Amino acid sequence: MVRHRKILSRGKSPDGESRPYPSRDHFHDEDPEDARVRKMAKRRLLSTELEDFMRYLNSPWHIIWRNMIVGLARGLGAVFGATVIVALAIWVLKIFIDLPLIGQYANQVRQKVDEVAQETRYSDDFVRLQSTMERIDLRLKTQNELLEQVLEKNNSPD
Predict the structure, then answer these.
(1) Which residues, other chains included, contact 10 with Cβ-Cβ below 8 Å and sequence gap of 6+?
(2) Dihedral sign of CA atoms 84, 86, 89, 94 in order
(3) Backbone phi, then psi, for 3, in 5-degree steps?
(4) φ and ψ at 101, to 5 degrees?
(5) How much is the pLDDT for 9?
(6) Pick from 1, 38, 61, 106: most CB atoms within 10 A?
(7) Whole-angstrom Cα distance, residue 63 to residue 55?
(8) Cβ neighbours of residue 110 under 8 Å, at least 6 residues apart?
(9) Average pLDDT, stretch 12-36?
(10) What's the burial of 90, exposed, middle or buried (CB within 10 Å: 0-12/13-18/19+)?
(11) Given its phi and psi angles, is residue 11 left (phi above 0), alpha (psi -120 to 50 degrees) or beta?
(12) DSSP letter at 26?
């Protein structure tokens, strides 16, 4: 036989007293059989969770996959959060530029931010990287041609 706890709503208790929350006296006593079943269910649940956790630990691909997804989410969250914060800071600075005393300082900060943004543009780096890759490609082609010539000389019948 399963007995359920009776939870009283806020307001008046059965004996007429006004109580904000039900006291322990208003709960029915728990059946010993019900307590035994709850303990068995709790043990079974814990053992199932432990089995799942052990299966997870024994599968490195699951760990790698989960950590990759978590890392991707953290990275995207950090980038998105930083973008929002910087955008809000620039927006607030634009509001303060028109104020008499604070405006000149806000304008100086905005100019510094613009200078840093211009300095960190990577277009020059990409141009240098492209020219370096072209030089490497040219060297590899010439080395490949020389290697083919050497192999042809060694394989030709004399």
Answers:
(1) 19, 20, 21
(2) negative
(3) -105, 140
(4) -85, -40
(5) 47
(6) 106
(7) 11
(8) 90, 93, 94, 97
(9) 59
(10) middle
(11) left
(12) G
Each residue's pLDDT tens digit, 125-157 = 778 888 899 999 999 999 989 988 888 888 877
Per-residue model confidence as pLDDT tens digits over 62-110: 888 989 999 999 999 999 999 899 888 878 877 777 777 777 777 787 7
pLDDT of 114 over the 60 cut: yes
Report the chain's C-alpha Rg in angstroms. 36
Instruction: Scan for tokens 């590899």, then name that residue.
Output: 140
Give phi and psi for 11, each to the nearest 5. 125, -135
Whether 26 shows a pLDDT value over 50: the answer reads no
Residue 125's H or E segment, with its range, is: helix 123-155
Lookup: tokens for 35? 């307590």
Find out whether 90 and 113 touch, Cβ atoms under 8 Å. Answer: yes
